[in-house]
Design goal:
Number of strands: 26
Structural class: alpha+beta
Number of helices: 25
Largest sheet: 8 strands, mixed
Distance between the termini: 33 Å
Strand content: 15-25%
Strand order of the largest sheet: 19-26-25-20-24-21-23-22
Length: 787
Amino acid sequence: MSIKNNTNNDSYIDVSKVIKHLFKNWHWFVVSLVFCCVLAIVSIKVLKPKYLVSSSIYIKEDMGLDGQKAMEFIQSFSMFDQKMNYQNEMLILSSSPLIRETIEKLNLETAYYLDENLLQKEIYNQSPFVVIIDSLHNQIINTTFEVVFKEDGKFVLRADKDDYRIVNYSTGIGYPTEKNLEIEAEFFQSAVIMGEDYKFRIYLNEDVDLKKIAGQKYAFKFFDIETLVRNYQKELKVNPVNTEVSVVQLSLKSESPARGVDFIQTLNEIYLNKNLERKNHLALNTIAFINSQLEEISDSLSFAESTLEKFRASNQVMDITTKATRVLERLQQLEIQKSTTERAYNYYEYLDEYFQQDDDYSKIVVPSSIGVTNTTLNEFIRDLLILSNQRSDLITRNQQKGPFFKNLEIKIENLRNSIVDNITFSKESLKREVEKFQDQIRQLEQQVKTLPKTERKLVGMQRKFNINDAIYTFLLQKRAEAQIAKAGSLPEHLIVEPARVLKKVFPNPKIHFALALFLGLILPALALVIIDLIDDRIKNEQEFTEKFADVPFLGSILKSEEKGSKLVVHSRPASVVTETFRTIRTNLSFFKEGAAHKTILVSSCIAGEGKSFVANNLAISLANFGKKTVIVGYDLRKSGQFSDFVHDKRRGLTSYYLKNNEIDEIIIHTEIEHLDFIAPGVIPPNPLELIGNELTETLFKVLKANYDYIIIDTPPIGVLSDGYMLMKYADVNLFVVREKYTSEKVLRSVLQEVKQKGIQNNGLVLNGSKLEGKKYKYDYYNKYNNA
């Protein structure tokens, strides 16, 4: 059945024919569905499963610390109330440094496997042994090392690889080689296994029973860390839960559920720890700066205290007079103010030197953290730290070439210049204040000189001690505040859902069977449609009559399923096949109506279309009708045309043309009344020359004088031209076409050639047809005939 329709030379696909064609071949759908379902079952059993591991983290955007007394010190820095962009945090979570640290912490560069049921299964955290790599030595990667343990504690190591790749874990440099690796050797536990491109040790775990694992096939494989980082970056999905909350979800598909949970959990821990380190960075810088100041003042305080104690002990002086006390108190106030101013000046000196020597602004100490009051500078440094952190994040994500990074660099440079100008102005101002305090101190020192010598010395020593003690106490207080703030600090973000396995995502039985159902239906449908479209053979009677409507159609011959004699009309006169020949016999009456004799030439396009079968049975049908009929076997290149009749194969047309026999001697009578035939005889070397002989015309004159019908069985005219030479003797030319055998293109070519030669009275017969749409008529005939 063809799914194409040809109407007015326009070709289109008939949907109804497509559906009928598919239903007709239902058995292919059954086979395809069974095959696809079996394939789905096998794939579910064989394919390595994948599990979806997920976790969610709350990303805090507002850093407000009101009501948290432990954080007042850090809050005074005025830099922790910034808005955190959780989209930036999402990028940090999937950044390569964070993933690389996670991989290294979990030792994921080494994977362990167990051979089980002809499949290799990963045994994460369940391996009875561990492999220790020498990171300084080159290591072969992506190569399977098989390990089989023995009961005596030894193990056999096997590996076979061509053109392997190596990497050095300490440098991270890897490259391919054209070397071949072949290892099969026995080793003791903890022995150094070393080659040119590998070096490692294998240790059994402490609680392993050798008897249980002896003989089992284990394996391990090394991977390149950078490749693992890229793979995990590709597999790790970091997405916001929704647009209304600052919660992000981390998800990962992993062949090992335990490995996936450990990876997500460790990644979260490292992320939170780094966030806490970043948050405590300012407090740590402050503590370090105060410690350096305490080291300087501690020596001065110890020396002043020691000197004061010795002086009191040697002079037996424990106290000073009221006048000296008033002078001392005033001097002490001025000295503290001067020291505070000098300390602020030293801080500005530190900033000035820092900006001249370093462009890493993350280690700057904020002025307010050491008691320096400068609101403008405090704002500048706060903004600088924020911009510096943004700059560091962009560098971490390798976004230095973007326009935002360039704008950020310009902002940082402008802010730096403003800070330097502020530092210069502040230093000049503080220098004048120090000179002012120095003048006031000199005036009071003149008053001290009027005191007795012993009391004057005691006042000086007491003044130095009190000043150092006050400064030391102030610094201790500031350090304690910073340490309290650091100890009470918590990560800004919070794990909402810990890492857990949600479900098995691959292979999914529902999807596999749905796909099997889809493919089981679509593949045979596509195949049948495509095959039908490219197949130009005659499919059925309807298509045949539609495409060759310009040539008279005499009828179809039902395909006979019975074995035995090919003379169906004679051996089974009541069969459906015989009835189809009677139909053709009837339709022949419309050709050359009223002619006394009818010469019918039967031919085909190519061999195998059943022209001899049609010629013989049509002749029998005419003979049964009472017409004297003769079959002339002009297929001189074949000797088996009349194998169903008993005859002498040496006598025939060839012997007639060679004048060895007369016409009446080559005519063979059959057991069928009114039917005779002339066999080809011996195969001649020159059939065309014999047919062109004048004896051919004589033969047909004699035959027409003695027979009602002459059936000429010729060679296929699509292959040989013998038939064309005989058509001038024929009244009707029948071309036999075999269903699902004859090519439409070949048939058109033959009919076109016949038309060009001016040959008329041509007809078509479809042989071997299943009579789609008409078979019910013949089924009814069978019932009626057998009633």
